[in-house]
Design goal:
Chain A: Keywords: ATP-binding, Nucleotide-binding, Transport. Chain A: Pfam families: ABC_tran. Chain A: Residues 4-245 form the ABC transporter domain. Chain A: It comes from Cellulomonas avistercoris. Chain A: GO terms for molecular function: ATP binding. The complex is a heterodimer. Chain A is an alpha/beta fold. Chain A has a single domain (4-268), classed as Rossmann fold. Helix content of chain A is 29%, strand content 24%. Chain A has 8 helices and 11 strands. In chain A, the strands form 2 sheets. A 6-stranded mixed sheet of chain A has the order 6-7-8-3-9-10, sandwiched between helices. In chain A, helix 5 packs across helix 6. The two termini of chain A are 35 Å apart. Residues 230-270 of chain A have low confidence and may be disordered. Chain B has 2 domains: 2-56 and 264-401, no CATH class; 60-258, no CATH class. Chain B has helices at residues 2-17, 19-58, 80-91, 125-128, 155-161, 203-209, 231-248, 264-300, 302-310, 315-347, 350-353, 366-393, 396-401; strands spanning 63-70, 96-109, 112-121, 135-136, 150-154, 171-174, 180-188, 198-202, 224-228, 252-258. Chain B has a 6-stranded mixed beta barrel. The longest helix of chain B has 40 residues, at 19-58. The radius of gyration of chain B is 33 Å and the shape is elongated. The chains are: A alpha/beta, B alpha+beta. Chain A binds chain B through residues 48, 52, 55, 57-58, 77-78, 81-82, 84-86, 88, 90, 92, 96, 98-101, 105, 109-110, 112-116, 119-120, and chain B through 2, 5-6, 9-10, 13, 17, 303-304, 307-317, 396-397, 400.
Chain lengths: 270, 402
């Protein structure tokens, strides 16, 4: 039994003009404990929606999502929220640290929604986690006083402080330079492996994606497996695949790059 | 348990982070609470002052007065009144009672003998009508048996006597042909300019030493009986007393009435409503300011709310958290307002502002403080409802990207 298992998941929204926009189409994906999976794709292809569904922030329109074998549709909204806090840790591109709170308070914030010892020992646990990501000397520093890499390390510490079973990283290096990005990903990989948490990274940075054990490409809402270690590179055409290379946001910006995802939404009959 | 503690900690953190905003929002609430608390307290004191003023002239609630008048010269003699009253008091177990007889008695002043208005009473009158003695003391039960009559006089009387004060233990001759030396034990202040000399004497002592010439005559004033009874007993007692007294005094017209409609409640009610209206309006303004700022703040915090939802914060927790911010803040503001109100009331001589002063100055009314705190917390809860509803309506995925 997989930790997370999506089967034929579709997510669509109705537009103001009553058209149906399909963001995800028949997505099938399974993630096991301790596994690192990467999903690449250009902006607007549904990567974040996929991550939101995986993290129980959103729900599929159709298809099945099993969380440890239990269909999430059977879980009450309260239980989904409880599982989200307990089993998932989110790392966002823009760090999303709480303003006005110190690094320590930010990392302790998820523990406010924990129970028992985790709640009462939240400050100690947060300090330990910050120490683990190398920020043991910056506990009382405000986020705006930290560099981008440090802020993302705080965000990683915050994502991990409740000991989640899955870490969902949405463009974790998107706001960082190449070197810092690699450093942060190294840390994320390391801590995820140490804690045995599954890591799902969505990115358009091929170097970041290449760190994963399994790779997927999301195009027009369709998820297909790719191998970034060899033949899988052909889909990026002549775009460099060196570490740190990224998929162009606008296909027209790089000559000769095949169009991977159309920015216009797919239309289907309502 | 952790949920409640967590929500409170979160609320407090929010307030700590936004001290200035909170302070600005809460100044109005604190001022309003202070106003409503102080006004409530002042109204209570004003009511007390008004009640005491009423009780000084009409007796405490509820005082029943039995007046008896002979209808003809053939009526039973007035001397039977005392025994009749005593029987009635004993029958109904009435403990607070006084005879009250307005008459005039000759006193020998340095400039000659003069008739002075005298009120002959029992010692209970001092409590029943809050008789204020400015110097000396009121009568005690022991005075009834003392040889020389005791007097409580007004200061006009004392001045007429040429005595400076009670230090010289002034006495005065009471009566004309066979006078008795009366001892002045207390002095009351004059209540209005041009007041004539007057004295209060114990009824039993006066009748022992002096009988006014006209006291037994038909058409002359006779003592009333005043009794202070529990309000719930007044309705039953008044007709019974009237019936009993009338039964043993044939030919007398006996009336019994109480002082419940003397209007002390009217001021109480009206002033309370005015105070409540002013306070409620002030609180409404303070609350609106709070709602305004809370709404703006929630808009600024939408992303944060989304992030917290990703941590596992339920919509109930978010709602409660935002609501608690408002409640905690206004509760603190309310406390500040109540403390300020207590400080003002304690340091302003409120009782002297009410003229005659208050005999039983009430302590700062706990009810006023509770009303203030309840209003503040209530306004906080109401003001928090709107932003809390806005907060839970935010879609998590939109909020994170906000």
């Amino acid at each position: 039994m997989s930790l997370l298992e999506l089967t034929g998941v579709t997510r669509s929204v109705r537009l103001p003009d009553d058209r149906l926009l399909e963001i995800l189409r028949g997505v099938t994906l399974s993630v096991d404990t301790g596994e690192h999976v990467a999903v690449v794709g250009r902006s607007g292809t549904g990567k974040s929606t996929l991550l939101n569904i995986l993290g129980l922030l959103d729900a599929p329109t159709d298809g099945e999502y099993l969380l440890e074998g239990v269909p999430i549709g059977r879980l009450s909204a309260r239980e989904r929220t409880r599982r989200r806090g307990r089993d998932f840790g989110f790392v966002f591109q823009q760090f999303n640290l709480l303003p006005g709170r110190t690094a320590l308070e930010n990392v302790a914030a998820p523990l406010m929604y924990a129970q028992g010892r985790q709640f009462w020992r939240r400050t100690t646990l947060a300090a330990q986690m910050l120490d683990r990501v190398g920020l043991g000397d910056r506990l009382d520093t405000m986020p705006e006083k930290l560099s981008g890499g440090e802020q993302q390390r705080v965000a990683i510490a915050r994502a991990l402080v409740r000991g989640p079973r899955v870490i969902l990283a949405d463009e974790p290096t998107g706001a960082l330079d190449v070197e810092t990005g690699q450093e942060v990903m190294g840390l994320l990989d390391e801590i995820a492996s140490m804690t045995g948490a599954a890591l799902v990274t969505i990115t358009h940075d091929l170097a970041v994606a290449a760190r994963a054990q399994r790779h997927y490409r999301l195009t027009e809402g369709v998820l297909v497996p790719v191998d970034l270690g060899g033949a899988g590179h052909e889909w990026v055409g002549d775009v460099p695949t060196l570490p740190g290379a990224r998929l162009p946001v606008n296909p027209g910006a790089v000559a000769g790059v095949p169009e991977l995802a159309r920015p216009v939404p797919a239309q289907v009959e309502p | 348990m952790t949920g409640l503690v967590g929500a409170l900690v979160e609320a407090w953190d929010e307030l700590r982070l936004h001290k200035l905003r909170v302070l600005l929002a809460l100044i109005g609430v604190a001022a309003a609470v202070m106003a409503i608390t102080a006004v409530t307290a002042v109204v209570q004191m004003l009511t007390q002052a008004y009640t005491e003023a009423g009780e000084r002239s009409m007796g405490r609630q509820v005082t029943i007065t039995i007046d008896a008048y002979p209808r003809s010269e053939q009526a039973a003699p007035a001397s039977e009144l005392d025994a009749t009253y005593a029987v009635a008091l004993e029958r109904y177990g009435i403990t607070w009672a006084t005879r009250d007889w307005y008459t005039s008695v000759p006193f020998r002043f340095p400039d000659g003998t003069r008739q002075v208005e005298v009120r002959a009473v029992d010692p209970d009158l001092g409590t029943m009508q809050r008789v204020g003695v400015d110097e000396g003391r009121w009568f005690t039960d022991a005075d009834v048996d003392s040889y020389a009559p005791r007097l409580v006089v007004n200061d006009v009387f004392l001045e007429s006597l040429g005595a400076g004060g009670l230090e010289s233990h002034p006495t005065v001759l009471l009566g004309d042909e066979t006078p008795v030396r009366a001892v002045i034990v207390g002095v009351t202040a004059r209540r209005w300019p041009g007041e004539m000399a007057s004295a209060i004497v114990l009824y039993d002592q006066l009748t022992r030493w002096y009988t006014p010439e006209t006291s037994d005559g038909w058409g002359q004033p006779v003592p009333s009986l005043k009794v202070w009874v529990p309000p719930e007993a007044a309705d039953d007692l008044a007709p019974l007393l009237r019936r009993d007294v009338a039964a043993v005094l044939p030919g007398w017209d006996v009336q019994a009435y109480d002082n419940r409609d003397t209007g002390t409640g009217a001021l109480d009610g009206a002033a309370r409503w005015v105070a409540f209206g002013v306070g409620a309006f002030a609180l409404l303004l303070g609350g609106l300011g709070l709602v305004n700022i809370a709404l703006v703040t929630v808009r600024h915090r939408i992303r944060e709310i989304g992030i917290r939802r990703s941590f596992g914060a339920t919509s109930g927790r978010i709602f409660f958290g935002v609501l608690m911010e408002s409640v905690v803040a206004t509760a603190v503001a309310g406390l500040v307002g109540v403390v300020l109100a207590v400080a003002v009331i304690k340091n302003v001589p409120v009782d002297t502002l009410f003229g005659g002063g208050i005999q039983d100055r009430p302590p700062f009314p706990v009810s006023a403080a509770l009303v203030g705190m309840a209003c503040a917390t209530g306004v906080g809860a109401l003001a928090g409802l709107i932003p809390a509803t806005v907060a839970v309506r935010v879609k998590v995925i939109d909020a994170i990207r906000y």
